[in-house]
Specification:
64% helix, globular, single chain, 2 domains, mainly alpha
Length: 169
């Protein structure tokens, strides 16, 4: 049987309500079996800052979630939440057992650049915290500024970051 493919261009309205998602999932069992539908809907909710809808999608992802398509959806959702400065959606992505393994160090670096380009310093600081923990866990050791128990990253990082925000603004 051929699977119906949905793209984000099918989703013309500003977001998808939680009620519609519940109806598709609980009443018709159609949200997750159509992989492209749930993946594109997840990205669309991140783009439109719909935290409740995004949370519902992530919380109900079934075990067999088609990782090749899902990987890109997590990455795209992360880019949109960084561009919008939406810390709540980032926290859902990073802290959910269904999506955390798909958030890479490379994705976090791209998200920091997106947040800088769109002028979201709070989001940048939030992403830096997670990037530092991701870097230290992947290398087995903490960055020097973490090992020395310095509260914030060295000034060089902050100055470079501020310069990139000013250039992009």
């Amino acid at each position: 049987m051929n699977e119906i493919s949905f793209s984000s261009s099918c989703l013309r309205r500003h977001g998808i309500s939680l009620g519609v998602l519940k109806l598709l999932h609980e009443e018709y069992d159609s949200l997750y079996p159509l992989g492209s539908l749930f993946c594109n809907t997840m990205v669309h909710c991140a783009r439109c800052n719909l935290v409740d809808s995004f949370q519902y999608i992530v919380d109900n992802i079934p075990e067999n979630n088609r990782p090749s398509l899902f990987d890109r959806s997590v990455s795209d959702s992360l880019k949109f939440c960084a561009s919008n400065g939406n810390i709540a959606i980032f926290d859902i992505l990073y802290n959910s057992p269904n999506t955390k393994e798909y958030v890479t160090e490379k994705d976090l670096n791209i998200a920091i650049r997106k947040a800088a380009k769109h002028g979201h310093p709070t989001m940048i600081n939030h992403l830096f915290k997670y990037l530092a923990s991701e870097s230290s866990s992947s290398s087995g050791r903490q960055p020097r500024w973490r090992r020395d128990r310095i509260e914030k990253p060295p000034m060089g990082i902050s100055i470079a970051l501020m310069c990139s925000i000013q250039r992009c603004a």
